[in-house]
Design goal:
By secondary structure, the chain is mainly alpha-helical. Helix content is 77%, strand content 0%. α1 packs across α4 and α3 packs antiparallel against α4. The protein is globular and about 45 Å long.
Amino acid sequence: MTDSTILHRLAQTIEARKQADAASSYVSKLLHGGEDKILKKIAEESAEVLMASKDGDAQHVVRETADLWFHCLVLLAYHGVTPDDVLAELQRREGVSGIDEKISRKTG
């Protein structure tokens, strides 16, 4: 089983490619395209995850989810946050009912 180390390595690679030439770096091209370009790619990848699931192909779901997670990492980099920020939020929510957690966001 792989831990979150791969998320950190990917985040570091994405960060390093922020300043790369957009002609030679897919990440740089996305980041230089701005938020709308990144969001469009996330929407596309989300739809592909849904379709893979509907097809019932578990390995296809894994591949498409990997694409989605990668593009979400690009979005995090765009906003200047890291996987650690997301992991800390998940840890904060651990053991809390989903219903209670949603209520706390409305009142907190």
